[in-house]
């Protein structure tokens, strides 16, 4: 009789464990269904994975440095000090090129909140950028003279030469002037 009770108790514990595992799987699937692409990028950044991000005719490969509401920043070359801020509205796809065994980063406090916020940072820095235009294979190059409510003006402050609406601005590449 004691043995029968032990077998019943073991069967009940096994059933409870299986139900708990199933509930955990369902919760993970439910959470994954609520993620957006920025959430996926944050997860890849936390892992430290090397990703390839395709935007139009361009592909950028490297670790993710920062993620905002509508922007992903990728370090595209440690030797060149190049970084690319990708407007997520123009992301064609993102894939893992190499899984990291260690490392990764958390989103830093004060990191870029949005694509427009990053453009304002670049304007203040006076850096020359490459602005990737959706549907064009040739980027526009120059300093950001002004960030408007829905566009950027590229060129010198006194007389900008290019006006690019955010609805066409796929990415912005900057180079660290202190890098080789």
Descriptive report:
The protein contains three helices and ten strands. The chain has 180 residues and is α+β, with helices and mostly antiparallel strands. It has two domains: 1-34; 37-175, SH3 type barrels (Roll), CATH 2.30.30.600. It has a ten-stranded antiparallel beta sheet with strand order 5-1-2-3-4-10-6-7-8-9.
Any chance you could write out the topology, listing elements then pairs?
Elements: H1 2-34, H2 37-47, E1 50-55, E2 58-67, E3 71-77, E4 82-87, E5 91-98, H3 115-125, E6 128-133, E7 140-147, E8 151-156, E9 159-165, E10 169-175
Antiparallel strand pairs: 1-2, 1-5, 2-3, 3-4, 4-10, 6-7, 6-10, 7-8, 8-9
**End-to-end distance:** 79 Å
User: What oligomeric state is this?
Assistant: single chain
Query: β content, as a range?
Result: 35-45%
Using the alpha-carbon principal axes, give the shape.
elongated
List keywords for this structure.
single chain, 180 residues, alpha+beta, SH3 type barrels, 2 domains, 10-stranded antiparallel β-sheet, 10 strands, 39% strand
Can you summarize this structure?
31% of the residues lie in helices and 39% in strands. The protein is α+β, with helices and mostly antiparallel strands. The chain is elongated, with a radius of gyration of 23 Å.
């Amino acid at each position: 009789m004691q043995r029968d009770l032990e077998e019943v108790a073991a069967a009940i514990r096994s059933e409870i464990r299986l139900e708990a595992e199933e509930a955990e799987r369902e919760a993970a699937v439910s959470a994954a269904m609520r993620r957006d692409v920025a959430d996926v990028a944050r997860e890849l950044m936390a892992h430290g994975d090397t990703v390839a991000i395709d935007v139009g005719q361009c592909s950028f490969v490297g670790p993710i440095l920062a993620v905002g509401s509508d922007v992903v920043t990728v370090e595209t070359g440690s030797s060149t000090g190049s970084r690319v801020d990708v407007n997520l509205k123009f992301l064609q796809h993102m894939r893992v090129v190499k899984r990291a065994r260690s490392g990764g980063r958390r989103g830093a406090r004060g990191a870029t909140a949005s694509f427009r916020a990053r453009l304002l940072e670049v304007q203040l820095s006076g850096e020359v950028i490459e602005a990737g235009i959706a549907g064009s294979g040739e980027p526009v190059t120059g300093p950001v003279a002004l960030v408007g409510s829905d566009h950027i003006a590229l060129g010198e402050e006194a007389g900008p030469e290019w006006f690019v609406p955010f609805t066409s601005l796929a990415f912005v590449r900057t180079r660290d002037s202190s890098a080789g």
